[in-house]
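quick one
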Amino acid sequence: MYSKSSLWLIVALALVLATGAGADTFRIELDYMADNSVGGHSHMPTTAELNAVIQMFACQGHTLIIDLSDEIPHHEVLQMDPAQNWNIFGYSGVADSYGALKNEFYDHAGVSGWHYCIFGHQYEWINDAGVRFNSTSSGLAEVSGDDLIVTLGTFIHNGASGGSPFEKASTLAHEFGHNLGLRHCGDMNCRDTEDADWVDQYPLNVASVMSYFYQMVGVRNNLVCQGLAPQFIPFKNIDYSHGSMCSLDENALNEGLGTMMASADWNCDGEIDPGTLTADLNGGSRNHWCGPDLISGVHSVLSDFDEWGAIMDMTKSLEPGKLTNMEVAVCISSEEVSRLTDKVVCPQASLATEACVSTEMRYVRADGSTGGSGDCSNAYNSVSGAVAGAPDGSVIIFEPLVWNAAGQVFQNKAIFISAQSAVLR
Ligand SMILES: [Zn+2]
Ligand SMILES: [Zn+2]
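structure w/ zinc ion:
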């Protein structure tokens, strides 16, 4: 029999083990709509699609349990509460509502620690003019809540409704990220209207499926395809951000430095200019930094954010009945996805169970990198400093200056992989 004090010790130890190791268990019950009539389609995700998301969590030491539960009737558009704008998750007044379906099919009602996800077709939304319409948004989720939907009904893949395998996996990760408290712009103020002095939802230096810039193309794939990073960056396609990209000050962009991983033509004039310049890298509705409202947009310092360090599952601390009337996040629409590929066509990554990344990305800058563009979390002011203690296979990226190390001179931007053997790439 334990004494009171030793019991407390055990409780405290258990808490340390639960939080200190950073390992957590997350649970989603997933139902999917299927139209079994002739010529119909199913929104059922495949095992490979679910495994890609499970693997994404496993790489961080987390366990994601997905209970692929019921096939449910196909409803074209999940209805919004006629009496309350934006209320989708709390409305159960008609058969084709999220609430009615949850009442009928959710097997974990009242059980803490579970999230309820429906893979459906579309949902009803309302525009700024107060007009309701059938949204083509890829999904909707409570921020820090327990309800989420993946709605790829207008995303056509191989002539069929419901999205590609990559889109299904990536969007599930995205919507679940909202449930875990993540937004579209890291920790920056993310605007949803054109006039607010906030950053837009396409931050190219938040390397995450939460950013519209990456959700449908893949993080690594889009970075490499857009020329913003070399082929061997230690990033995955389906991931939340680790906060390892450098800041970009839109008022003082340096094209030579670019993203710090590769130089970048920020003003889209076809060359890498000297000095600094001003440009809006993610403004307005143009989605790509070379779009039409270049220069004229809002300029701010864009920064990355360690999303993995910030996720929090409120279903563990709040009873299910308390997670109602929550803020919701509306996610990228099929029109926004097509605009994104208007300027630069980057093929979507193919679905894969990706290998985990255990290496680091480190930056070497003359000033050790503080402030403004190129403010990087893993910055060093000497080659030896960056090499010391870097896990084998790490990528070390140099500011384009002359660097001397181990008898080698690196002029211009030099990148080497495998820190301990200093292999120049
Ligand atoms: Zn459908
Ligand atoms: Zn979203």
